[in-house]
Design brief:
The protein has 481 residues and is an alpha+beta fold. It folds into four domains: 156 residues, MutS, DNA mismatch repair protein, domain I (3-Layer(aba) Sandwich), CATH 3.40.1170; 57 residues, 5' to 3' exonuclease, C-terminal subdomain (DNA polymerase, domain 1); 127 residues, Dna Ligase, domain 1 (2-Layer Sandwich); 71 residues. It contains 14 helices and 22 strands. The strands form five sheets. It has a seven-stranded antiparallel sheet with strand order 16-22-21-20-19-18-17, with no helix packed on it. Strands 5-6-1-7-8 form a five-stranded mixed sheet. A four-stranded antiparallel sheet has the order 9-12-10-11, covered by helices on one side. A hairpin with a 6-residue loop joins β19 and β20. α10 packs antiparallel against α11 and α12 runs antiparallel to α13. The protein is globular, with a radius of gyration of 28 Å.
């Protein structure tokens, strides 16, 4: 029996660092207050001398100036569930262990993927590389776990034939036994798995009970526990980062429609219907927001699902700026239970034809999107690049929305009052003949504050151009409204 252990260490911390990158180099402590005493469940690399299982009081005594984050276990487990679903796309025998650890049975799959090495690489690629996954491969679960713990991410370690020799120098802290028993082994001088393996099994059983025998067997590399597969819950998951953090409901609804279009145009959704959906939003400086949607009747097109989700989001939606949206279609069936109308079927056929055309174009362009839609999201916004988004019709790589009318840096010579007097366009300077209009705004409350002073100017050659000075960066830009 060949087993791979897929491991993401410090999953909680890695997810929080993605959510709040400005804290990446700070001594952050992630604390769970749901217990009788606040406990540390994870920490950022900068928090030295701290370990999971400490009380918050102990951790703060060792890490002065520590930044405390409240743990969001529900969000961490949802993220881990998405990892498990991705692994189920490679193997139908995936077991969920503790958070960040999964076991995958490889038997019978090597030929399908062209060998064990390629199969394990496919498993690693099913996990976001930002999470630095690692893998261990062995003939039993515990040796595979130890191999995963001892390799550098992202990478793979194969357990050698001498399993006991491979395990011998590893610390007893890797044993899946209660922490109090590991501490007691330390007191008896049993510091490595080799120390445990050298003991008589009867002595360990007498001192530590059944867990002592189990520890001895594991130290010898004996582990006959099978991989217990998760129930396969088929779903279609799509995600898209927003081009900027925003609390705009229109922008969120555009993101949801984009994700629904992608999900329903996937080949495995052809002729199939979804009984529900789940939306998770990664928020700026706030815990992730999650909402489940149940469809009274299964939906076979993105428009019908969009109407239901939109109605509910207009009543309850995230109150903090959204950075990324993740949508999953679930409860997939092969029939709708209702007769779809002909216009809806025609729309669905049109969507599928466009999606197929886009896939063929991407095959010729190296996977780059070829078809786009322009979607207004905030026509009233004073910053032109935030008024409309360019959305790829279909992107297998998950390319997200892009703003239009992005500003570009430009060299400007200023007049005595800071107004533009000349602008460098092409390869030469052009004098400003007249300032046609001037306006400014300061959006200091946004996650990324904007403060600009705009000038619409007439050049000496008769053309017009719109310039602005960024008040925060003290730089000039050109922008077409």
């Amino acid at each position: 029996m060949t087993i791979a252990c897929l491991l993401v260490t410090h999953l909680r911390a890695k997810l929080e660092m993605q959510r709040q990158p400005d804290l990446r180099d700070r001594p952050v402590l992630i604390v769970d207050r749901s217990r009788s005493r606040p406990m540390i469940v994870d920490h950022f690399p900068a928090a030295s001398g701290v370990a999971a299982g400490m009380t918050l009081e102990q951790a703060l005594s060792r890490q002065t100036g520590g930044v405390v984050l409240e743990a969001n276990e529900a969000a961490y487990h949802r993220a881990f569930h998405r990892i498990l679903v991705s692994l189920q796309g490679v193997s139908d025998r995936v077991e969920e262990a503790e958070l960040g650890t999964a076991y995958v049975s490889l038997d019978g799959l090597e030929a399908m993927y062209g060998g064990e090495a390629r199969l394990v690489t496919t498993l690693l690629n099913a996990v976001s590389q930002n999470l630095a996954p690692r893998a261990g491969v062995g003939e039993a679960k515990f040796p595979a776990y130890v191999a995963a713990r001892t390799c550098d991410p992202p990478g793979t370690t194969r357990v050698p034939p001498d399993v006991a020799g491979f395990l011998a120098p590893r610390p007893v802290d890797l044993l899946p036994i209660p922490a109090r028993l590991r501490a007691e082994m330390h007191r008896f001088g049993l510091l490595t798995l080799g120390d445990v393996a050298a003991m008589k099994v009867e002595a360990l059983t007498d001192r530590f009970g059944p867990e002592g025998r189990r520890a001895w067997e594991l130290a010898q590399g004996i582990d006959d526990s099978p991989v217990v597969p998760l129930k396969h819950e088929e779903s279609v998951v799509e995600h898209a980062p927003l081009p900027f953090s925003s609390a705009s409901l229109d922008l969120l609804l555009t993101a949801v429609d984009t994700l629904l279009r992608r999900a329903y145009t996937q080949p495995r959704m052809r002729g199939r219907y979804a009984g529900g959906a789940a939306l998770e939003c990664v928020l700026y400086r706030a815990q992730p927001w999650h909402k489940d949607f149940r469809f009274r009747q299964p939906m076979g097109d993105w428009q019908g699902a969009s109407r239901i989700i939109r109605r509910q989001l207009e009543v309850a939606h995230p109150q903090s700026p959204v950075e990324e949206a993740i949508l999953a279609l679930s409860n997939l069936t092969g029939e709708s239970g209702t007769q779809l109308s002909l216009p809806s079927d025609l729309r669905g056929d049109r969507e599928r034809r466009l999606a197929e055309a886009e896939r063929q174009l991407q095959a010729r362009t190296g996977g780059k999107p070829a078809l786009y839609r322009v979607v207004p999201v905030a026509p009233w916004h004073p910053a032109p690049e935030m008024r409309a988004m360019q959305v790829p019709f279909y992107s297998a790589g998950g390319e997200g929305m892009k703003p239009l009318s992005l500003p570009s840096p430009v060299a400007v010579r200023e007049g005595p009052e800071g107004e533009p007097a000349a602008v460098h366009l092409g390869k030469r300077w052009q004098r400003i003949a007249k300032i046609e209009d001037r306006w400014c705004f300061d959006l200091w409350w946004m996650p990324q504050p904007l403060g600009r002073t705009y000038y619409r100017v007439a050049r000496e050659d008769g053309g017009e151009v719109t310039l602005f000075r960024d008040q925060r960066e003290n730089r000039w830009f050109r922008q077409d409204p």
